[in-house]
Amino acid sequence: MHRSDFQYDLPPELIAQQPLARRSDSRLLQVSRGNATLSDRVFRDLPELLEPGDLLVFNDTRVLPARLFARKPSGGRVEILLERLLDEQRCIAQLRVSKPPRAGGSLLLEDGTELAVDGREDAFFRLRSPAAPLAEIVEKLGHMPLPPYIDREDTAEDSERYQTVLAQRPGAVAAPTAGLHFDTDLLERLERRGIRRCSVTLHVGAGTFQPVRAERIEDHRMHAEYLEVPESVCEAVAGTKAGGGRVIAVGTTSVRSLETAARDGGLRPYAGDSRLFIYPGFDFRVIDGMITNFHLPESTLLMLVSAFAGLDTIRFAYAHAIDEQYRFFSYGDAMLLT
After folding, report:
1. 169 bridge partner residues
2. By the 8 A CB rule, do 19 and 159 touch?
3. Separation between Cα atoms, residue 30 and residue 50, nearest integer Å
4. What average pLDDT is seen over the chain?
5. pTM to 2 decimal places
6. Is the pLDDT confidence value at 274 over 90?
7. What element of type H or E holds 297?
């Protein structure tokens, strides 16, 4: 398949720049992949669209305030976007800078803290904090790493709203956005209806926003992201399927986590990096449905949802969403694919 198969035209005004006042007020487009039927709903309707015995699988990663500002010793400005913390002192990061620093150089953060530049890995730089642990530096000086299509600076509200209410494990530099629509009231209503939940962890990297440059999508190499699927999730999935329930992944990150852990056959506990690239033709082994936001043209995320629902169905759904003025991308509306 070709990258251009996943192109569509989106009016810029449909890119959501702010979260709604209440998470569950987002719109929800219900899509049946079997007959490509569509239904316009509101996200708080979700409990009535699922059945008792269904299982929702969330991603419990927590977004780091991973955007830092620094200067080179010469005075040049540098914007740092952490990709991953490697240990207490080391990380890899993207740098926005007019002239890239050399290995052995240094960067000075806003409070004078020094970061050493140890070298490069493709588009990323290896940085090291000789003094304070990086996690402490990030919490003190970092800004929320809003996606590049949100054309504004981050605010105090983003510190709370660009996290899911189930976020527990720090490590992501982008939110698992399908989870942003859930609030505590909605979670309680789902529980009362007999819909269970469990959580995997996938620390979303900045590579999620990297474009697919290969024209043949089969030639694209996915960025690596760290994930964990615990034994408790494997047991919950097995129990759900044995009882006739459905496994509904909340977001593409939960999909990639579950399907990575099932690549060798049955679903098993997994901890480690994944470069799993899901595109049309992929054989899904775990999920029966997913909740997902609307994704960028020609993105790996759009390819993933097209693999599950079918490319024609996704084209039909996206055209409807644009006609009906749905809000797109991270702070936008959602789809339920079953």
Report:
1. 61
2. no
3. 11
4. 95
5. 0.94
6. yes
7. none
What DSSP letter does each residue of 157-210 carry, written as one string? HHHHHTS-TT--EEEESS--GGGGG--HHHHHHHHHTT-EEEEEEE---GGGGP
The token duo for 302 is 């759009």
pLDDT value at position 223?
Answer: 87
Percent of the chain surpassing pLDDT 90: 91
pLDDT in tens, 24-37: 999 999 998 777 78
Check the CA dihedral 132-94-303-153 and report its sign.
Answer: positive
Nearest C-alpha neighbor of 244 from the set 25, 82, 53:
53
- Which positions ≥6 away from 148 have C-beta within 8 Å? 209
Least confident of 86-90, 198-202, 270-274: 86-90
DSSP one-letter string for 106-133: EEEETTS-EEEEEEEETTEEEEE-SSS-
What is the mean pLDDT of the segment spanning 314-319?
96
Q: Pairing state of beta strands 289-293 and 169-172? A: unpaired
